[in-house]
Write a structure and sequence with these properties.
alpha/beta; Rossmann fold; six-stranded parallel sheet; 16 helices
């Protein structure tokens, strides 16, 4: 692709999972609107290859796979070298003026290649507990953008800005529920439960929902289901609904997720940051079942922040029994008042300008590099999204970082029981932290000590 020298050129590394890819595509769209030349770097995974089919106006390049798994270090090193070499070759034609990493080890080689060639480098951290790749890249990049403000205190980063989570433009437009249901083959007037396990499905959620079907069918015979089961479970899930003669649309995945969210009355979902941001964007109440094997249990802490704000209900997977899960689903479907309160809380998690804000900051760095304020310290946070700005002396930083953990505090077990959920299994290992005159529960986060 020929790139005129006068056109800003930005590379976005965002492959590996939908949680990295879709926010990256949202930022790419905003950069294209600002007449930028954009290259999107993805992985060979099927979720990436399917999702980019609807992308337009940008160059899409697949890099060799990079993934760090237990016992697979040699494979990781090999893949990393291949990906780094491919990124250097891509940038040889024309050096990008900026490289943005959206998380995951697929994003690391392009950052290193771009940094060595003088590009401005950025990362976006979508989870409350940063991933391993972003923790490693934090000391390399020029600035980080974060969704959960407490994430900045868990990275060795010079500048962090709370922008919120970018979502694709189709989630920012109101969707008529009846029209969305008709488009999906559902009855336009009957309630719909959306079941989704993230971009690759989730067998644990599939099992929990299928076990709850008898109680759900008995409680609300007109209840409909839109179930995104993943490739491995789709046939089994289809047969389970058919055996009970329930109205259900079962797909392995759905590219048009705006239709799925627009059609739903309630969602049952994992708590990856991208899924949470999309629920918040459309105001869809959800029951969250965090993926128990997520690195550093980050999905649990994402979900906990939503639960504490009143934006969601949560079950740990081990406690999502058919009786309890069906009780909470039926209660929320029948209570418009409860769902309205959750929608109001969800609005606080939606940042409609997140993608455009990130795009503007990247362009500002390209056009006119900014110098760091004299008083800025490593670990400081800034924000133009209506949140509190944190800068200044080490003493002020310590106080602010202490305050940040308050969003991850544990409430008493009764809070979870009242919402139909169990108390965290590790409540007994939590310690009390006093911030000002308020005592809150603060868990010891794995790998971070008492941050």
């Amino acid at each position: 692709m020929h790139r005129p020298s006068s056109t800003p050129f930005v590379a976005i590394a965002c492959g590996g999972t939908g949680g990295h890819l879709f926010p990256g595509l949202a930022v790419a769209e905003e950069l294209i609107r600002r007449d930028c030349d954009v290259m999107v770097l993805i992985s060979p995974k099927e979720v990436d290859q399917q999702a980019v089919k609807s992308a337009f106006g940008m160059e899409v390049v697949t890099l060799p796979a990079v993934g760090l798994t237990r016992g697979g270090f040699l494979g990781f090193v090999s893949g990393f070298r291949k990906s780094h070499r491919a990124a250097k070759n891509l940038f040889r034609d024309k050096v990008p003026q900026a490289v943005l990493a959206m998380g995951g080890f697929t994003s690391a080689p392009p950052i290193l290649a771009g940094k060595k060639l003088g590009a401005k480098t950025f990362l976006h951290e979508s989870n409350s507990i940063p991933g391993r790749a972003n923790r490693w890249l934090a000391h390399i990049v020029d600035e980080a953008f974060v969704y959960f403000h407490e994430a900045s205190g868990r990275m060795n980063i010079a500048r962090a800005r709370v922008t919120g989570m970018p979502v694709r433009s189709q989630f920012l437009e109101p969707m008529d529920a009846a029209s969305a249901r008709i488009a999906l083959g559902l009855h336009p007037e009957k309630p719909v439960v959306l079941v989704m396990g993230g971009s690759q499905g989730a067998s644990g959620i599939n099992h929990s929902i299928l076990a709850a079907l008898p109680a759900l069918a008995a409680g609300l015979p007109d209840l409909q289901f839109l179930h995104l089961a993943g490739t491995n479970d789709v046939a089994h899930v289809q047969n389970a609904y058919a055996a009970r003669n329930l109205r259900a649309v079962v797909r392995p995945f759905l590219t048009e997720m705006e239709l799925a969210l627009g059609a739903a009355t309630l969602a049952v979902s994992r708590s990856g940051a991208s899924s949470l941001a999309e629920l918040a964007a459309v105001g869809l109440p959800g029951i969250l079942i965090p993926y128990p094997s997520a690195t550093d249990n980050h999905q649990y802490y994402n979900a906990l922040a939503f639960v504490e704000s009143g934006a969601a209900r949560m079950f740990e997977q081990s406690s999502a029994t058919p009786e309890r899960l069906s009780q909470v689903i039926l209660g929320l479907i029948e209570s418009g008042e409860d769902r309205a309160a959750m929608r109001q809380a969800l609005a606080g998690w939606h940042s409609p300008d997140a993608a455009s804000e990130i795009a503007e900051h990247i362009l500002a760095a390209i056009v006119k590099p900014t110098s760091k304020p004299a008083l800025e310290k490593r670990g400081s946070i800034s924000s133009s999204a209506g949140r509190k700005s944190v800068t200044g002396s080490d003493k002020r930083q310590s106080a602010d970082l202490a305050a940040q953990v308050s969003t991850l505090r544990y409430r008493r077990a009764s809070t979870f029981v009242r919402s139909g959920c169990s108390a965290p299994s590790n409540l007994s290992t939590a310690c009390r932290l006093k911030i000002g005159n308020t005592a809150v529960w603060k868990p010891a986060l794995p790998g971070y000590g008492n941050v």
